Protein 1
Amino acid sequence: MSCNDEASIAAVAVRNEDTQFDFVDGLCKTRGWCAPTFTLDGMHCPFCKNPDTKVVDTRVGEDGYSIRRRRECPKCSRRFTTVETATLMVIKRSGNVEPFNRDKVITGVRKACQGRPIKEEDLKQLGQRVEEDLRARGLAQVPSDEVGRAILGPLRDLDEVAYMRFASVYQEFNNLEDFERAIKELRDQESKEGNESHD
Ligand SMILES: [Zn+2]
């Protein structure tokens, strides 16, 4: 069984000053996996590696942050889909800029979750929520502080102890008053949400 035009390829990664894409994975419905080949200038046909592909259809992805392109290879006539997303860049405190990495978010949060009843799946979802939150701002670059702030909300929903641990490091708690203030905020938030859910 060979790949046919049902192949679909999710997301792209080309490092280029103007158009930054991330290649995530490739999927062919009949073969399960098709690794596409990329060059800095463009994309090779994933079936015959022809360097020229023709875009036959372009649509905005369901999430609103990606573009799906249906492409056809002029050489072998096979069709495939690419999903292009802009690379979200994070400005570090040092001033260096690096691509946003969901795994880094999860690694940072996982430390705060030690010994807590939190599943790997919960962490994955948290990483996704953080990325969606940051992308929804429509900025190409976000400071690393913003990434930390975007973690606080979803982590609070997940586990209050992990939240306090994470907040104490991220917000540089220095004394008991800092903890008391954070706990008070947490309680206020809870009673507010409690009231809302009873309305
Ligand atoms: Zn081809």
Protein 2
Amino acid sequence: MKEKMMGQGAGRLGFCRKAALAPMVRVGTLPMRLLALEYGADIVYCEELIDIRMAQCRRVVNEVLETVDFVAPDERVMFRTCLREKDHVVFQMGTADPQRALTVAQLVENDVAAIDVNMGCPKEYSTKGGMGAALLSDPDKIEAILSTLVKGVSKPVTCKIRILPSLEDTVSLAKRIEKTGVAAIAVHGRTKEERPQHPVHCDVIKAVAQAVSVPVIANGGSLDLVKSHGDIQVFREAAGASSVMLARAAMWNPSVFRCQGLLSLESVMEAYIRYAVRYENHASNTKYCLCQMLRDRVESPLGKQLHAAQTSAEICEVFGLQEFYSEHRARLLARQDSLHTGGQRPDRPVMEGDVTTMSVRFHRREYPPQITPKMHLLEWSRREKLEQPAYETVQRPLDRGFQSTVTVAEKKYRSTLWEKSKKFAEQAAAVVCLRSLGVSEGRVADPEAELVSKRKREERRADQSEEEKEGPHGPPNASDSTSRKRHQSKPQEEVKG
Ligand SMILES: Cc1cc2nc3c(=O)[nH]c(=O)nc-3n(C[C@H](O)[C@H](O)[C@H](O)COP(=O)(O)O)c2cc1C
């Protein structure tokens, strides 16, 4: 088979003899893409992202994770990418609007290797907006979208189609697409009415590949044809295509891209979790992908344990990766610290608007058992006949870190460092307040600490009964008012810290 030229506008990314991770909603997030690359995939598609949502995103360089994040107004990270995949990742979007498609493509183009338009999704949520497979019956729209993208971005533009009921129509659509200047066409060898368990029509993909001169990427062979790396070549030849794109085979076991052969699912899952933790993937997404890998073993004891896990820490525990998780969190916090302190003395107060800030972190081991900065601040406020300190905590979705602001005598104090829990964030805010006021915070090395601890031990019983009266939810003004989650804390001390 002759090797095909890449269409006009092709950049560094080529589409000849390549094995690609197919776009998959929920599955194709950063950890899966990095794992597929590690195992030998040449190209990795992200999950389909809808243009309307993406157009509202802002680009954020996440220095802590060393990623580039595209963050929605509600602070959700819609697309996270990193340098490792920059020359391999294809950004797939769902669109029915040339101008909006261009806006999104221009937003991401410097961080990705190519832009793809999904023209194959048969799901109603996609087709009812004129996106996905709905485009297949609107070739003028296809042409408008692809031509606009090819002209408007510097990276290769591709599209992913399904076959049409007639071979002639499929071939003529592919020829029309080719004229727009796309760098490759991915062809899923099923019609939009056919289900994933129907056999893939390699003959139709082959006819398309013979009719156009841009590379064709064959897709749809996971169930019947591709079980391991060697089958990729078999599928490519059967479809007469330049490259192959795998969805389910890669979702079930991404080591299908490994030329040395498949790895055990256990080791693949562990490797996946390491990427998921490293890049702060949302636990529910991590869990979803792991469950897809387990397939019919989802009811096994491991599957049940996984099902019960709610957080990344708990997922790690199921797989015996607690130590890895703790080390990761420690590294993350240390990196946050070094980025935020920026070489400044950490205990120098800096005003940020009306808030006094310092770069301090709460280290539990620096305080005597059961005695915390919050207790010291509460005690001091009572002595000064002030209202009890009020804490307001926010959580940022970027890395799910917590930051708390404490108000004392109508002045606000907070640490610039984000903590791993709400409790620690409140303690850090209390430390900032105490240090700014020059009041002892009760560290072990602090001579005043012993006195306060003694008095606290005597008072704790009284405090606890007061707390019981107040009820478990604190004051009634806790609210969810902004895009960040807000946690209004009761002023009463939490003993654990
Ligand atoms: C979980 C899942 C999610 C998918 N999401 C997308 C998507 O976001 N965009 C897309 O073009 N196709 C999507 N597909 C379709 C696949 O990319 C692919 O076309 C199809 O599964 C056939 O390939 P296979 O036989 O290798 O699985 C998805 C498939 C699966 C299984």
